[in-house]
Design goal:
Blueprint lengths: L1 E2 L6 H9 L4 E3 L2 E3 L6 E5 L6 E6 L3 H19 L3 H17 L1 H12 L3 H21 L6 E4 L5 E9 L3 E4 L7 H13 L3 E4 L6 H12 L7 E3 L5 H9 L6 E5 L2 H11 L5 E5 L4 E5 L5 H13 L9 E7 H16 L3 E2 L14 H16 L3 E4 L14 E4 L16 E7 L2 H8 L4 E2 L1 E5 L3 H10 L4 E4 L14 E2 L2 E2 L12 E9 L8
Parallel strand pairs: 1-15, 8-9, 8-11, 9-10, 11-12, 13-14, 13-20, 14-18, 17-18, 20-21
Antiparallel strand pairs: 2-3, 4-5, 6-7, 7-24, 12-23, 16-17, 19-22
Helix pairs in contact: 2-8, 3-5, 3-6, 3-7, 4-5, 4-7, 5-6, 10-11
Length: about 500
């Protein structure tokens, strides 16, 4: 059932009036070259929310020039001062949580409750890295032969380009921007064209928090390749961080090779969710609902394949389907909505195609399976039972509210099926056997693993994958290292006599 309410109310209009819609270049907000703009739409209605400046290649050049000009003075800014800017930004975002949540819901579609959760999660990167900024350190040691002293320094990588996705408009920005600020790097941010409004509002918050001119520039655009391509080839750029599809990530890695850029790539996933016979089924179902339905399934860490041991497969499917059937689909601003629309028609069409293909491959449609009529890009929460292990849907990142369930017999079989993918971002498993959990942690080819947990993301932990799910880590102690170079200095023995 679709929950509906008027597409805009007074508060929504007032919020939209306060959102910056220009490019952030150098010392302030400015129109794009030629005054070009593009519409940002509400995926629950298809209606235009705002027109946003549409950057051209000339604007990208201006953005990088501003970042390069600001790099030296920003790198020399005391770490404590950089940390205090992040701390003030954390406090402002937290104070304005309702505004950020509503804006994300309007441009991306997720329910307000989930948007509020993203605000809390995204803001925590600001707090975490505000504390890491003054902890950047190197080391000093005597060489083993005693003839010199070894000084290891950490220095900022330099101007960085961030390309963020549409599905977590705030958190994907803070997860990259916060460690870069802490490390002393300047930044050019290209937010997703589908959801640029949250990033623009966040950029204004950083200015309010005291971030100097030129340290962050923001260039929303509908011509991503034309704008970012020249930047990646520019010798002034020293770092590229991208979150998105593996297909695009491969191209960006190839492009970055020309300048031998430092790259961080958080790419696609195909997360297995394993449920063993000895699992607490009630907790497993709770975790499965979180792992699959958070963000409507539009997440790289969403459970993509449910592998359930035969002894509990029927009961798990029944309980899980009952829970999914209770979801209420509608506009995210409605208090009764528990799942919003997909982000656009292309995403909905892909989900529908994958479901139809799974049924053709022999899966049973236990729930849903259809696009919903009317305005917006709504799709029914869907459960597919008895999915053949070779079904095409198990090879694709679904990015929607669709849960395919596969039955397995042995632990060895489950591991083999789980690893049967070129991706390795995250995996989940429910079992009461600790030894099994440890075996899975060592044998599953994954960058992150949740044992009896349906959500693993945490700002204090390193986020990232293996295989074709990417390179580098975001968050945790490791996150700031992505923005620091290691410099080694050899100092002659200060006690050696002249000429030694």
């Amino acid at each position: 059932m679709i929950a509906t309410e008027p597409t805009t109310d007074t508060r929504e209009r007032q919020l939209l009036e306060r959102v910056p819609t220009q490019l952030l270049l150098g010392d302030g907000w400015t129109d794009a070259e030629g005054g070009r703009t593009f519409p940002v739409t509400d995926p629950s209605t298809g209606e235009v929310l705002l027109e946003v400046a549409d950057a051209r290649p000339e604007d990208g050049e201006r953005a990088l020039a501003a970042a390069a000009a600001a790099q030296e003075s920003w790198a020399a800014t005391p770490p404590r001062e950089r940390g205090e800017i992040l701390r003030r930004a954390f406090e402002i975002v937290t104070a304005r949580a309702d505004d950020f949540a509503l804006l994300m819901t309007l441009e991306m579609g997720k329910p307000l409750a989930e948007s509020r959760g993203e605000v809390a999660y995204g803001a925590e990167f600001l707090r975490w890295f505000s504390e890491e900024a003054p902890r950047i350190s190197g080391r000093f040691a005597m060489a083993p032969d005693g003839k010199s002293r070894l000084l290891v320094m950490k220095t900022p990588v330099g101007p960085s380009l961030f390309i963020t996705p549409w599905n977590f408009p705030l958190a994907m920005a803070t997860r990259k921007i916060a460690p870069a600020i802490a490390a002393g790097c300047t930044m050019v941010l290209k937010p997703a064209a589908l959801t640029p409004l949250t990033a623009l509002l966040f950029a204004e918050v950083l200015r309010e928090a005291g971030l100097p001119d030129g340290v962050l520039t923001v260039i929303p655009t509908t011509s991503a390749g034309a704008v970012t391509g020249p930047l990646i080839r520019d010798p002034r750029l020293r770092k590229l961080s991208f979150t998105g599809s593996t297909e695009v990530g491969r191209r960006l890695i190839a492009d970055s090779a020309e300048q031998v850029l430092r790259v961080s790539m958080e790419l696609g996933g195909n997360a297995p969710f394993l449920v063993f016979d000895d699992a607490d089924l009630s907790k497993a179902v709770d975790g499965a609902v979180l792992a699959k339905m958070r963000n409507g399934g539009e997440a790289c860490v969403a459970a993509n394949r449910f592998l359930v041991q035969r002894g509990v497969a029927a009961e798990f499917t029944r309980l899980f389907t009952e829970r999914i059937a209770a979801f209420r689909v509608g506009r995210g601003t409605d208090a009764e909505t528990t799942m919003g629309p997909l982000v656009d028609e292309a995403t909905r069409s892909k989900v529908a195609e994958l479901v139809d293909g799974a049924v053709s491959d022999g899966a049973t449609l236990a729930l849903g399976g259809h696009a919903l009529p009317g305005a917006g890009y709504f799709y029914e929460p869907t459960v597919l039972a008895d999915v053949p292990v070779d079904a095409a849907i198990l090879e694709e990142e679904i990015f929607g509210p669709v849960a395919p369930i596969v039955v397995f017999d042995t632990e060895e079989e489950a591991i083999e099926i789980a690893n049967r993918t070129p991706f390795g971002l995250v995996s989940f498993a429910y079992t009461s056997d600790l030894n099994r959990g440890l075996r899975l942690a060592e044998r599953l080819e994954t960058g992150m693993f949740g044992i009896n947990a349906g959500v693993v993301s945490n700002p204090a932990a390193p986020f990232g994958g293996v295989k074709q799910s990417g390179l580098g880590r975001e968050g945790g102690f490791e996150g700031i290292d992505e923005y620091l170079e290691t410099r080694y200095v050899n100092i002659a023995d200060p006690f050696a006599p002249d000429g030694r």
